[in-house]
């Protein structure tokens, strides 16, 4: 194969088509796309029949036998569904969805008092928000690998960050970011910049994408708008500090030593119209010196904005020209970059060019040198800027020195070698940095490799989130699913293994070894202050119009067979599931009262409602829990 150091659209496409034939042929021979699209069928007809046994067994890894378990977890952003999806890989089976920002009728998220408290309510008790747009999910680190404590996910619409406890796979906190619109990139830190003993995540960095007036008044003059970069405390989920910046934030990355965080910027022009946002030939990757920012906050060198009490330090160009005191550094990156990713060897951040066909490799040691006054120009921290193809967006790593970048316009993933790219950039025009290309279907956004954003990157699998699926699945009307593709990257060449339809629009995800998590399958009764610990505590407890109904569930019965209320009662119903056995979940629904939620083993949940409709209402269990599940009912009599 000829080396294409400067891929033009034509040669990239021509080459892609060749590769596409090969890949599709391999896939269809192994039965993966046996009957799902024309290109697969015709490619297979033309195929020489030389699909290797190796490719066959590689494809088989995605087809687990019944009862077999996956070897990797995938945490997927749920997109507009406002949840986090849990996948098993390599099969790609969706195992769970963790509701965060948006109500979920299955578990009663947004129905129970406990979930509403996490989600946030208005004074009338209704949910503050019903919509969300999640893009990025990342998990907490220790020693450069995931430690299984937490994951975080962003809501771009309402500028909220949610934390997921990875022991119970539940969302336990949601924080609103003050004075931020379009909260986009998110990344936990991996260590403390000062205290070496803290080799785990204690901060979560959040990038504000849209610039607005600060405080937000209806000002038309866009030159007065600014964006903020926010630090949230990983434990308390309180907002610790913010940085006022020029330009905007997009994606976020953090260094392994905790000293640096960065965001790519596509709107250094600070344009308010999209034409303006593309005016400049170069934008930036903005670095934050975490230790200096925290020292500035400690020293009181901050202001606050509007009603928010959060300290805001000045990270604009004007205030940070002296490297010795600078809190921020703006590294120049070609036209409207998208994505910034940290290499697993801890040395580089890579920005993809988006409107430039390049990736820019920035050496972190040199950025730190600049802050120490040892590097004259911050742009000298750029050690490579190489052409990859059209529309580069995101980069993943295999731990063997290779990077994998999505090419949105070329509908490809390009595998390239970082060291070779650096050599090429230095002037060695024989350095062959492009290793392989593979067509994906179609228009990929994020990709991530197994363990990619950890020091334990293992270079086995790559998942690619394709924004368009077009002809890859049975047609289901105008709204197409997206196509999440799964690729084997263990060899020199990438091999496409599987397509998976997914509801829009996940954007980002992480994949890691299953033994990094030890989920609990049964709750602890004592963790719920309202728990009804014994069926004998059940009953209707009246205080004027305020009524508390205490109920327990144990298959196949609720603790009370019936209970009475009066019309107009303000009811709190508390249900504890006293079944302690794994997988024995009960649900409870109240017809006409718009109530349904589940209680898992030893979980307690509660709801409030006004008994405004007289009559007989059968509260029934909604999870098939027992042979007598259908009989598992309680009669609620509301007297008129
Ligand atoms: S962004 Cu969607 S493809 Cu929100 Cu991470 Cu790049
Ligand atoms: Cu309990 Cu069905
Ligand atoms: Ca721009």
UniProtKB/TrEMBL annotation:
<feature type="domain" description="Cytochrome oxidase subunit II copper A binding">
    <location>
        <begin position="544"/>
        <end position="640"/>
    </location>
</feature>
<dbReference type="InterPro" id="IPR006311">
    <property type="entry name" value="TAT_signal"/>
</dbReference>
<comment type="subunit">
    <text>Homodimer.</text>
</comment>
<dbReference type="Pfam" id="PF18793">
    <property type="entry name" value="nos_propeller_2"/>
</dbReference>
<dbReference type="GO" id="GO:0050304">
    <property type="term" value="F:nitrous-oxide reductase activity"/>
</dbReference>
<comment type="similarity">
    <text>Belongs to the NosZ family.</text>
</comment>
<keyword id="KW-0574">Periplasm</keyword>
<dbReference type="InterPro" id="IPR011045">
    <property type="entry name" value="N2O_reductase_N"/>
</dbReference>
<comment type="pathway">
    <text>Nitrogen metabolism; nitrate reduction (denitrification); dinitrogen from nitrate: step 4/4.</text>
</comment>
<dbReference type="InterPro" id="IPR041142">
    <property type="entry name" value="NOS_propeller_2"/>
</dbReference>
<keyword id="KW-0106">Calcium</keyword>
<comment type="function">
    <text>Nitrous-oxide reductase is part of a bacterial respiratory system which is activated under anaerobic conditions in the presence of nitrate or nitrous oxide.</text>
</comment>
<keyword id="KW-0732">Signal</keyword>
<dbReference type="InterPro" id="IPR041114">
    <property type="entry name" value="Nos_propeller"/>
</dbReference>
<dbReference type="InterPro" id="IPR051403">
    <property type="entry name" value="NosZ/Cyto_c_oxidase_sub2"/>
</dbReference>
<dbReference type="InterPro" id="IPR015943">
    <property type="entry name" value="WD40/YVTN_repeat-like_dom_sf"/>
</dbReference>
<protein>
    <recommendedName>
        <fullName>Nitrous-oxide reductase</fullName>
        <ecNumber>1.7.2.4</ecNumber>
    </recommendedName>
</protein>
<keyword id="KW-0560">Oxidoreductase</keyword>
<dbReference type="InterPro" id="IPR008972">
    <property type="entry name" value="Cupredoxin"/>
</dbReference>
<dbReference type="Pfam" id="PF18764">
    <property type="entry name" value="nos_propeller"/>
</dbReference>
<keyword id="KW-0186">Copper</keyword>
<dbReference type="InterPro" id="IPR023644">
    <property type="entry name" value="NO_Rdtase"/>
</dbReference>
<dbReference type="InterPro" id="IPR002429">
    <property type="entry name" value="CcO_II-like_C"/>
</dbReference>
<keyword id="KW-0479">Metal-binding</keyword>
<comment type="similarity">
    <text>In the C-terminal section; belongs to the cytochrome c oxidase subunit 2 family.</text>
</comment>
